[in-house]
Amino acid sequence: MENARVMSKPCFWYNGQLIEGNSLSLTIDEPGFIYGATVFTTLRVYHQSLDHPLTHWTNHCHRLQSSLQAFGWQQPDWEQLRQGAQSLITLYPVLRITLFPDGRELIMGRPLPANLAQWQEQGITAWVAESSSVKFHRCLPTHKTGNYLSPWLAKQMAQNMGAQEAILVDNHGNWLETSTGNLWGWRDGQWWTPPVEAGILPGVMRSHLIKWLTCQNQRVREEPWSPELVGQLDAIAYTNCVVEVVPIHRVIQENSERVYDPLHPVFQDLRKY
Question: What transmembrane ranges does the database entry give (predicted)?
């Protein structure tokens, strides 16, 4: 089991050093701490190899680099960053890489979700994050920044309702993404996913699946998920690089529920990527 790799004493990589423990010292004026001024990516390491094609190391680095360029931040020492990741892959199956505006890197490891196999097989429950008191809109949605309060809060509220994920929506009620991944739906013999232009994160797994499905001569409809479309989907799932493909079998929205088939045969095909 991949999770069996995790060591008893935690360790992490920070600014060129492997550190044992679970605490980090930052200055009180650190913008990453005060404002969430960081960018990050979370990847799953397959077979303890950064070069394994499913690890998508290069794609994760490219996304980080793109955000740094957009923000005008300093590039990290990429060789040092890879060295840090390499030092942790025998210990953890999941790595979160965080970059600071001045080029420092922080890499933390963690196990896979304990219930992942069950989620993949049976599906999960999701809550549509609509509240009269809070608008759950991600900051700079096409970039994965440390200002992640909105999706984090939405997921906490979803869990309080017995759900595992939250579905973020726009001002018109269109579904955008989950708090940790991208949405996929099956209808009329083809896959549907919300477009990046709607204000979602272009996930690494999402990009990979679109490319793979296109190579399989399957059309992917990147269109807004209106309430009407959502009601017509036969099956839905969410994806990210850690959980891969997880069906959503039940959706809670206000005082109503929607039920979808988590065992729909299209999921077996999608997992062949």
Answer: none
User: CA-to-CA distance for 186 and 192, rounded, in angstroms?
Assistant: 6
Q: Mind listing the pLDDT tens digit for each residue in 96-155?
A: 999 999 999 999 999 999 999 999 999 999 999 998 888 898 899 999 999 999 999 999
Which residue numbers in the chain have pLDDT < 50? 1, 4, 6
Whether 89 and 199 map to the same domain: the answer is no
Residue 79: CB atoms within 10 A of its CB come to 8
- Residues recorded for the chain: 273
* Spatial contact of 97 and 50, defined as CB atoms under 8 Å apart: no
Q: Are strands 244-253 and 190-193 parallel, antiparallel or unpaired?
A: unpaired
Any domain includes 6: no
Domain boundary among 68, 90, 110: 110
Q: Based on the structure, what is the number of domains in the chain? A: 2
Flag whether the pTM goes above 0.85: yes
Q: How far apart are CA 147 and CA 14, in angstroms?
A: 20
Q: Are 50 and 86 in contact (CB under 8 A)?
A: yes
